[in-house]
Amino acid sequence: MSQEIRNLEPKALWNKFADLNAVPRPSKKEERVIAFMMDFGQKLGLPSIKDEVGNVIIKKPATPGMENRKTIVMQSHLDMVHQKNNDTNFDFDTQGIEMYVDGDWVRAKGTTLGADNGLGVATIMAILESTDIPHPAIEALFTIDEETGMTGAMGLQGGMLDGEILLNLDTEEDDEIDIGCAGGVDVTAVAEYDEEPTPEGSIGYTITVKGLKGGHSGMDIHKGLGNANKIMNRLLYTGYEDFGLQIATINGGSLRNAIPRESVAEVVIAPIYDEAFVFDMMQIANEIKAEFKTTEPNLEITIEKSATLPKMVMPSMAQFYLVRAIYTAHNGVYRMSADFADLVETSNNIAKVTVGGGNLTIQCLTRSSVETAKFDLANALRSAFELMGCEVTFSGSYPGWTPNPNSEILDVLTAIYEKQNGSKPNVVACHAGLECGILGTNYPKMDMISFGPTIHGAHSPDERASISSAQKYWKFVLEILQNIPVKK
């Protein structure tokens, strides 16, 4: 781990982040980071609990003079999104994140950084370890599997926590205080088809879409970024309509909550179309690149002859329905909020498309701050996919977090922010999925707030954390701890 990270200020925060990033912690494979966190709490001599699903709770009493303040829950999630560039050789299951300093930013070498939500976890660790930071009684809650299902938050039982206030440290702009978020549901379409032999004399091509920015499918969905699966489908649709292209395989996207950056398809065409196919398809590719020249300047689309000819392809009628269903399925912002300015209300991310071996799967993550609107869009997707013969399931549904503009802790944070920065913070609801709404189902009286340092490019290898923002955020956290309201 680079020593330059450990030398950054505040050292307490960055050193804990470096310790955490040395531990592999993919979603649904959190055994090592759970053990790491339990060991951390026990070495401090603090009560440390692992609940039935794997969440870790560490409790620390108030510092002298703060015993009359309300108990707070400081919460962040242990898992991180694992994304890497195609040319990066890295094993997330065994390696720690390789970080470096780039001006005001901390980045990772070709992978996600894990600042989402590692900086929140590191903040809590630093405070638990401290001997000179005044604070009320703290219940540190480290949840698991936030990124792929929020099963940690969903599995947390009532009665585990006594805190009256929850500080969620999982937002990504340091001038924002979040008081609400969107809910989500996974929409998955699957189908089987009977492969047929590749026609004799066919020519194989590999179509590749890459170089897209990707990003968080909630926080970045409004930016007009390219979706590799939708771009690939445009190419396949045209190739099929104009040249009788036949699909052998498609592999597009990876994670449900990441805007897909790359897609690769193996296809075949009849030799009579060989020259015209490449010429016309590259024209389409250049048109697409021109459309995205502002938001996706590094988009690459290549059409190259395959080293080996696929043996089997998708039947024409199955392919006819597939490309039309993906064309029909909505991707991106569906509706803006009527209640909050510039807030996305409802959206969908066509996250992953895989075709081959007689099986196809299309995975989407639909989000909305309005529960009925969430399922309205999900049902629209279901309809498109069922019309092509897919079996469609909804899973992992989680509620949004309804804003409480009369929150006592919101008043505290707003006053501190204005005193420290000379301006008011942006009090917002976000389109990401925060765990507050889920935790609130078992702790409905808990006053909740969310904030964090500036992180850009989350859920992509371009993820980076601002050093100056981390300093601003740390100062903010320390004063919040000193100003928690007294018990009533």
Automatic annotation (TrEMBL):
Family as reported in the entry's similarity comment: Belongs to the peptidase M20C family.
Transmembrane segments: none
Descriptive protein name: Cytosol non-specific dipeptidase
The enzyme's E.C. designation: 3.4.13.18
GO molecular function: metal ion binding; metallodipeptidase activity
Record-linked SUPFAM superfamilies: Zn-dependent exopeptidases
Swiss-Prot/TrEMBL catalytic activity: Hydrolysis of dipeptides, preferentially hydrophobic dipeptides including prolyl amino acids
Enzyme type, top EC level: hydrolase
Keywords per UniProt: Cobalt, Hydrolase, Metal-binding, Metalloprotease, Protease, Zinc
Top-level taxonomic group: Bacteria
Organism the protein comes from: Flavobacterium tibetense
Keyword Transmembrane helix attributed: no
Biological processes, Gene Ontology terms: proteolysis
NCBIfam families linked: aa-his-dipept
Domain Peptidase M20 dimerisation residue range list: 208-293
Cofactor(s) required, per the database record: Co(2+); Zn(2+)
A cellular-component GO term for this protein: cytosol
InterPro entries referenced in this protein's UniProt entry, alphabetically: Peptidase_M20, Peptidase_M20_dimer, Peptidase_M20C
